[in-house]
UniProtKB/TrEMBL annotation:
Signal peptide: none annotated. GO terms for cellular component: cytoplasm. This is Tudor domain containing 7 a. Residues 288-335 are annotated as: Disordered.
Length: 1048
């Protein structure tokens, strides 16, 4: 199914849920509530949403209401006529607004490659999007109608019903308030699957999701705080709808929520009236928390219709009166409209969400006002201001806040002039759709400024499609179309230009001279002057492919877009070369970061252009055999390298500017300087010891955590995005010209091979020289990489090499190799449990901490969406459950923030125990498999299934907080093939089809082990990403082995 067809199906699901139509201004919000994304009309070549909707007459019908508002109605066809009839019979209630509590941005972008219904149908990769978005939508009517439409469309497919029972059971937990849907679904399934029908019929007795109940209770508490004298129960749904723009489907349960509110009959109804009148005669109010409690009062007259209730100061424990709720913490006051508006303003800067715990400090810095930390204890108070997501359901204290879709207003960046001139006589050409992947290859063709870079995408559907098109054009115009000369070309007209004898290109006329014509080659981004005789008519058959030349902007270089030094550097690094591009912002003109991957280390082109602006005269020149005094050591790394600050003109100027920036942040509100789009190479500000300092982003871990390098300290750190600030524009150009003030140095004669030092040596060096002013250093060598080899001295006195820090450290006993590894505890045998103990208990006791629970898996014959992290051969590969991957991303971000702030500590390392290990700048949960004599440790990554060899100093204890999530790596073997020895050729074929790919796995058998990482499963693997058919991996391996056997 194409992307357009998928959007059509989603639009039908949104529009069919409302018989009165959906206002166009609200359509984007409702669409995102169902799908987690906005309607991508620009990807399909439309400049506005209304234009895109007009192009879908079979899906959307547009009408203008009496108030002048454009309303959208679902188009009716034969396939959806029955759905339209169901919607027409709905009660006349206001459509529920978009969800204010659920958000999908924490989910991986490629989740559409998986399905949640378990079938192996050819359209499974698209069906999964439908199911996942339906289940997580908070609008019952929209959810119900969407499921009905989808199930009806697949009713004839026998395989569709495989696993559907489990999906419907999960979905119905959210649909207790939608009686129309439950009854209609029952009628639909009663003619197909009796098992599914039973699930639907029993769903009416299912309890409501506890998480939704908590949200509604919090909102009701907030509502009742506005009515101190109580409010009629019959008025609660109306007031709830006005306040939160959503229907209240639980109003009948309000009287039972005694911990939220109290209720009383103002007048005793007769038995005949009790069923209908008791709910209307109830008055509800919140117990006053600030007033002194008093005994309940009696009504003043028998005809009183509303009562106020107070509570005794010390309620009796044995009292079960519904008037007396259980003791609860005092309810918090609702936020003022001004605070909520500031919150919306703040969240609009963080499209990827903001950790709730960062709000109080961020509010104080950005707006100069207090945000009560007590609100974080009851996030339901924020329900009408933002969306709340709990990425770790077991930890309710860790929540992420997102701006509501209708409140996100991004200010568009300046756009460069269009490459193709408008001309009414030209036929329609489809617009170029930007690839959905974040990293892709491009060919940079022309640079006029950093805001106007002409390039074209490389790959299938782009450069390869262009090659096929130009070959067809060359063949056509050399034969059949040889006489199609354009005698009177017009400016703006699209033509075919014979640039050379072996090239005919699509072009547009820009200037007409006497015998020549200046044309712009729309696929290659350059101008060419050609003879009039070589201007040919461009046939419609060559206009089906979008013009390939497009424009982009370099992120982070906007203030220097026309700077000569920047442009010269950019041209030398990028023009005419194929580079890797990272898309930072997806707009009509995307903001990108370019990388040159042709060398051993990737080069960030944006960062190099920014560094070209540095004034080298502000550095302290380095010379061999020179002695430098008043040196400050700012960082000591784990490999023994150190960073030093030398007195220079740049250091003095830097101090002056940073003092002005400190005063600027104190005197002015800074919410506009929040960093909303972080990317590698970006230079910004972060706090170090309470003061702002220059920092460069060097790595991103998901959307919330990143690594930075303090440029003037040489100090790496891990922070949350909310801790960064933009450099104020008035100081930006001055600050960028100052080179980094920290110089990387290596202590001569001390382990200069780059290996990790023993922790004792690192700690000793830090205690001796770190931030001890003054120090003195002597340069003895400058190698090709400009690495400085030095002797370091404490103080500015005589420089006797024997008194240098280098010699002092070399003489320390722990520096000896045979000593500093002796503290590693080596256990050669596995830790065996005592009699009567479970393996879990034995390992938990050895660590002094508990192990996480086993990962829950479906039963034999069931399907699950997986990601293959490691594939050795069909007899051994490692799976991860797709639905839990975002939890692992959050966990690893938490581990990075925790462990990167810890000092190096000495620990006893034991084989077969679980630790935290730093591997490739990330922290992983690992199992120690063995300890080598050279200080290296063999570990197994419990969440990814990889084996790594690391230095023992990279291990730290795994604290209990990081032991709650089950280990995500699942060892597996391929079912349907004969297991045995696998040749390298077969292993390579298998890896190419499954490794680092999302697949569907069908469980064939289990093989339990003593430890959670010893469990192994046998599965069939299916690739469902192809449009035409599903690919069963075991069939590929069987065919390959048969070919090998026949060849032998």
């Amino acid at each position: 199914m194409s992307d357009v067809e998928l959007v059509k199906k989603m639009l039908r699901a949104v529009l069919q849920s409302s018989k009165h139509g959906v206002a166009m201004t609200r359509l984007q919000g409702d669409y995102r509530a169902l799908t987690g994304e906005i309607i991508p009309y620009r990807q399909f070549g439309h400049g506005s949403l209304e234009s895109f909707l007009h192009s879908l007459p079979g899906v959307v019908r547009l009408e203008r209401s009496s108030a002048g508002e454009v309303m959208c109605f679902a188009g009716v066809c034969e396939e959806t006529a029955h759905i339209a009839q169901l919607v027409a019979r709905q009660k006349n209630v206001k459509k529920s607004g978009c969800s204010k509590l659920l958000n999908f941005q924490m989910r991986a972008k490629s989740s559409s490659l998986f399905s949640h219904n378990g079938n192996m149908h050819t359209q499974k990769s698209r069906q999964c999007i439908y199911w996942s978005h339906i289940i997580f939508c908070n609008n019952p009517e929209a959810k119900g109608t969407a499921i009905l439409a989808f199930c009806r469309g697949n009713q004839g497919d026998a395989n569709f019903w495989v696993g559907l029972k489990k999906i419907i059971t999960a979905a119905l937990r959210f649909l207790s308030g939608c009686t129309n849907f439950v009854s209609s679904l029952f009628l639909l399934f009663s003619q197909t699957e009796c098992d599914v029908c039973c699930v639907v019929s029993s769903a009416q007795q299912k309890p409501v999701n506890s998480a939704d109940v908590e949200v509604v209770q919090g909102r009701v508490k907030q509502l009742l705080q506005k009515y101190c004298s109580g409010v009629w129960l019959s008025k609660i749904p109306q007031l709830y709808r006005i306040m939160f723009q959503e229907e209240l489907h639980m109003h009948k349960e309000l009287a039972t929520w005694t911990h939220i509110c109290t209720s009383s009959n103002a007048k005793q109804p007769t038995p005949a009236q009790q069923t209908t009148r008791i709910l209307r005669t109830l008055a509800i109010n919140i117990p006053p928390s600030a007033q002194k409690s008093k005994p309940p009062l009696s009504p003043t007259s028998p005809n009183s219709t509303k009562l106020d209730f107070s509570f005794p100061e010390t309620p009796k424990a044995h009292s079960h009166s519904p008037i007396t709720p259980p003791s609860t913490p005092p309810s918090h006051q609702p936020l003022t409209p001004e605070i909520k508006q500031k919150l919306r303003q703040l969240l609009s800067k963080y499209s990827q969400g903001l950790w709730a715990h960062a709000l109080p400090q961020l509010f104080q810095e950005a707006f100069g006002c207090v945000f009560s930390p007590n609100v974080l204890e009851d996030l339901s108070l924020l329900a009408d201001a933002c969306m709340v997501e709990y990425p770790m359901p077991d930890n309710r204290k860790r929540a992420i806040l997102y701006a509501l879709p209708c409140q996100v207003q991004t200010q568009p960046r300046p756009r460069p002039p269009p490459l193709v001139l408008p001309y009414t006589g030209n036929p329609h050409v489809p617009p170029l759709i930007i690839p959905t992947t974040d990293f892709l290859s491009v060919l940079v063709m022309e640079v006029s400024s950093t805001d106007n870079i002409v390039l074209r995408f490389v790959g299938e559907g782009y450069s390869k499609a262009l090659e096929v098109l130009e070959e067809a054009m060359l063949q056509f115009y050399n034969t059949v179309g040889a006489g199609l000369c354009l005698l009177s070309p017009k400016i703006g007209q699209l033509v075919a230009a014979a640039i050379e004898d072996d090239a005919v290109l699509r072009a547009q006329v820009h200037l007409i001279l006497e015998d020549t014509v200046k044309v712009y080659c729309v696929d290659h981004g350059f101008f060419e002057v050609v003879s009039r005789k070589k201007i040919l008519q461009l046939r419609d058959q060559f206009l089906t492919l979008p013009f390939q030349a497009t424009t982009c902007q370099l992120a982070g270089l906007e203030p220097f877009s026309t700077d000569g030094v920047v442009l010269k550097t950019l041209e030398s690094l990028a023009v005419g070369r194929t580079l890797l591009v990272e898309i930072v912002e997806r707009e009509d003109t995307p903001a990108i970061v370019l990388y040159d991957t042709s060398e051993n280390e990737d080069v960030n082109v944006n960062a190099v252009c920014l560094k070209a602006l540095q004034d080298k005269s502000m550095e302290n020149p380095l010379q061999v055999n020179s002695v430098y005094t008043n040196v400050c050591v700012t960082n000591v790394c784990s490999d023994g390298s150190i960073y030093c600050q030398l007195p220079s003109r740049g250091q003095a100027k830097l101090k002056d500017i940073m003092d002005k920036i400190e005063a600027h942040f104190i005197s002015q509100l800074t919410w506009e300087l929040l960093v909303s789009k972080p990317f590698c190479g970006k230079v910004c500000l972060a706090k170090y010891k309470g003061k702002w300092a220059r920092a460069e982003i060097i790595n991103l871990h998901g959307s919330q955590v990143l690594d930075i390098l303090f440029l003037d300290l040489g100090l790496p750190a891990s922070l949350e995005v909310s801790e960064l600030r933009e450099i104020p524009p008035i100081f930006l150009k001055e600050l960028i010209t100052i080179p980094p003030q920290a110089i990387k140095c290596i202590l001569e004669e001390l382990n200069a091979d780059g290996s990790v030092w023993p922790p004792e040596a690192v700690l000793w060096l830090r205690e001796t020289v770190l931030n001890k002013v003054p120090s003195c250093m002597k340069i003895v060598k400058l190698d090709e990489t400009r690495t400085v080899h030095i002797y370091l001295f404490t103080g500015n006195g005589a420089q006797d090499l024997q008194s240098s820090v280098n010699c002092q450290l070399a003489s320390c006993p722990f520096w000896q190799r045979d000593i500093h590894f002796s503290k590693i505890t080596r256990v050669s045998e596995p830790i065996l449990p005592e009699a009567g103990d479970s393996p879990y208990t034995a390992l938990a006791l050895s660590n002094g901490l508990t192990l996480p629970p086993q990962l829950d898996l479906p039963g034999v014959g069931q399907n699950m969406d997986v990601f293959v992290s490691v594939a050795c051969h069909p007899g051994h590969f490692v799976l991860q459950l797709w639905q839990h991957l975002y939890k692992l991303v959050v966990l690893m971000g938490e581990m990075i923030l925790f462990y990167n702030k810890q000092e190096v500590t000495q620990i006893n390392i034991q084989k077969n125990n679980v630790y935290a290990a730093k591997i490739d700048n990330n922290w992983h949960r690992v199992l120690v498999k063995g300890v080598l004599t050279n200080g290296l440790v063999s570990v197994y990554e419990l969440d990814y299934g990889k084996y790594e060899l690391i230095n023992y100093s990279q291990l730290q204890p795994l604290i209990d907080e990081f032991r709650q999530l089950p280990f995500q790596g699942i060892s597996a073997q391929l079912a349907g093939v004969k297991q045995g020895f696998w040749a390298e050729e077969a292993s390579m074929v298998f890896r190419n089809h499954v490794e680092k790919k999302p697949l569907v796995a069908q469980i064939e058998s289990f093989e339990e082990g003593d430890w959670p990482w010893e469990r192994k499963i046998s599965v069939y693997l299916v690739d469902t990403t192809h449009e035409d058919n599903d690919i069963w991996i075991h069939n590929i391996m069987v065919e390959f082995l048969d070919e090998i056997n026949r060849a032998a």
